[in-house]
Give the backbone structure.
Amino acid sequence: MMIDGSILVGSGNRRSAALFHAVNPSTGETLPQSFCAAGDRDVADACALAEAAFPAFSALRPEARAAFLEAVAEAILAIGDDLIATAMTESGLPRMRLEGERGRTCGQLRMFAAELSRGEWLDVTIDPALPDRTPPRADIRRMNVALGPVAVFGASNFPLAFSVAGGDTASALAAGCPVVVKGHPAHPGTGELVARAIQATVAAHGLPEGVFSFLPGVANDLGAALVGDPRIKAVGFTGSCAGGLALVAVAAARSEPIPVYAEMSSVNPVVLLPSALAVRADALGTGFAASLMLGAGQFCTNPGVVIAVEGEALDRFVAAAGEAIAAAEPLVMLTPGIHDSYRAGVAALEGNQAAHRIAQGPQASSPTRCTAALFETTAAAFLADAALGHEVFGAAAVLVRCADLDEMAAVIAGLEGQLTATLHMGPEDSAAAASLLPLLQAKAGRVLANGWPTGVEVCPAMVHGGPFPATSDARSTSVGTLAMARFVRPVCYQDIPDGLLPPALQSANPWNLPRTVEGIREVGH
Amino acid sequence: MMIDGSILVGSGNRRSAALFHAVNPSTGETLPQSFCAAGDRDVADACALAEAAFPAFSALRPEARAAFLEAVAEAILAIGDDLIATAMTESGLPRMRLEGERGRTCGQLRMFAAELSRGEWLDVTIDPALPDRTPPRADIRRMNVALGPVAVFGASNFPLAFSVAGGDTASALAAGCPVVVKGHPAHPGTGELVARAIQATVAAHGLPEGVFSFLPGVANDLGAALVGDPRIKAVGFTGSCAGGLALVAVAAARSEPIPVYAEMSSVNPVVLLPSALAVRADALGTGFAASLMLGAGQFCTNPGVVIAVEGEALDRFVAAAGEAIAAAEPLVMLTPGIHDSYRAGVAALEGNQAAHRIAQGPQASSPTRCTAALFETTAAAFLADAALGHEVFGAAAVLVRCADLDEMAAVIAGLEGQLTATLHMGPEDSAAAASLLPLLQAKAGRVLANGWPTGVEVCPAMVHGGPFPATSDARSTSVGTLAMARFVRPVCYQDIPDGLLPPALQSANPWNLPRTVEGIREVGH
């Protein structure tokens, strides 16, 4: 498969006069391949094709869409090492990480394929007619239907698993929604390779070409035009708070407002309870440092705030973490822009009177490597200055030293919404954990104990979401099977003749779906 | 139970200097009882109490909240005929209608009680640890948790079933959310009686007082203050488009935006297919007129637009409908303001060059009675002027005369989002119905055949919702068991020790809930 910098609108490959280039973050060099930036005409055409594709695509038997998703996974694997090599060059991420991410991306596509075949997501619910009741009850049947074409904005930090064929695309396609991807400008070649794999699979499966389009570009205008197009019915986004909120504003201002699922910002608080520190301060320090610096700290779930009670054990934690941080080789960040933002964030903490740097990584030899940094502050200062609780994307964190458990609780209660909240507990911490868990649950989509927040399992029980500003919609997750629920709405059908009902609702249950009949759950398979 | 015009903040009854009165719409007289309007202090106190009540209330065993909901139903019935008499005086609605609505209100509370005991709404999903996998998988468990305190804005047209103890309140309480009701000023005495029944039940069940507060008032400021309070986490609203959108704007402008479930405006298109008209034009005409004029047309599901193909059969439909409309006694509308808006809406249609009045009810003898009106227009005119498709709340409708099925399809495709869409079909209409059903499904939350949209069954399969502007969130319903889903969000727990997990997630399944384990559904009871 060749990269030529095209815009992929349905089955067509287009050129434009507006060209852009990616940068190799490891070297700072601009890469030679030029990419065409999509414009308003491409947005309109992609959305028109998506709208045209919607009725047939959403009405497909689930097994047919499942086969398509599995074929997309195969096609991505079939790209071979070109995909990994291109992603390495464009993202600075190491081979093993990207190979793992490719496995996750394909596994995720297969997971949605399995989930949609199982059929729970349709939530088929049937209340048969009660003609003898006074008044008689009509026959009422409910199922979930796809929302319509979905716009997807991938993230820079997962050029495969949260990008062109990432979780948003996979879950939207699974639900029956055509997808228009705004390609991330940091990895346009990686994006094009994956987009071509999807485009070829759409054609191979005889699906309408509008099921998928790929619009590379740099300008924010492109994204705004896409979200503003009246044919788009929902948006999936992973990125910055500013970017997410801009799309939320565009979506809310439409004559028909639409849902935006934006995963934005999180500092993923880690709470160290006293007994945990007493029995394993050193291991916690090194474990924390490893999670903080993993992937140069460029994870949504990066632990950016540590909350703990003062004392000798906490000092041991700091010493161990500081030693690990000081010894770690700085890693390449994803883009020069992200590195600039990281340095600005660290500089702001350094300039904050209430924060003190207590650990630092080695100075980087090349311009886009991430020098990790750990700061400390007091609970009072943290509560007084919201800036200390804002995300610095990269390997920087703030330790909040608390006088006691009450102060820890106050700090937790003052946090904004988070993707994750972590509790480390020791043998004597059960009472404290029991009192803090409800506070943590109120702030986060995932609460974990005795682990680190980085590493998001792709499984039915996963929630990768959380209260604002972690996401724009706390009722959703962007990882796991429940992600499909973002792209459907319930519709009920009253007294529709059986032969005219969607197959999922017909009395003979031709798709063999699990159903709830008269309020009682019947398991299908 | 006495009505004294108090503001009910938790267990406390308060007075204020700002008084207002209700009007008897049947006579136009101002009623003697004065009611205290709540102010900012009351909003803040009610929200603080609700926040304080939330942890304990949301953590209750489902059976305990179910018993509370059932007791609320009993307490409403125990008010006795005072409730019906007060509601008749304040709303102008007839006794039989209000007795039926009371039954529906209590039945709804019991339905949510049963639903929350069944436990499907928690969506418990467990992926056990896989310690031997490479890398090992943590133990991950997901459930739905309540969002927090909910603000409820009742509707004028259902002083019981969509008001203080209506579907929004019942579903929010069922989900574990304390409720602060902004009382509707058209039926303050009815509201107070129901609010006192809930308040007494909260006390009798030993629940925290903040589980429920009732804030009567007239000014829009009161509602804005309530939605703007940072302790409120979701909003349920039924009313006008302007009112709903104002609350949506307040909610979106908060530092933490929250979901607003506003049910707003719908013209509930009715499509008459040729064979249906050919075989039963007269019956369709009288059936339509009855649905149009039911309750003076003051239903969210009132059929305000009829779409049909020109011809002799349609003329018979019009004649039958016109005869029924001309013969019907005008009914009292809910408030003088609603009657004024209705007359203005009808006057606008009369002044519209593209619309012609083809039927009218008798002129009303008293000032707030609704003189029904039926207009007609062409498909081209309807498509050219959006005003012809806007809701006129009351018994007014527009017939859109189409040249053929293609023109009907174009008219349907041009509609805004709707609560309902109705198809009348005869023996020869199956092909036409099959082609139009996907268009109707795209526009509505409920699609029905050979019936009338008025009359919303309260059952698991019901969807009372629909695309914007029918509601502000097409992914939800305000009627039926699925209404609870509006007030929860998913949270997952990773490697939390079993004893610290919420009971719903503990391995022994102490609440005997249905669960999904490793992606496989296990039925609990």
About this structure: The first helix of chain A runs from residue 40 to 59.
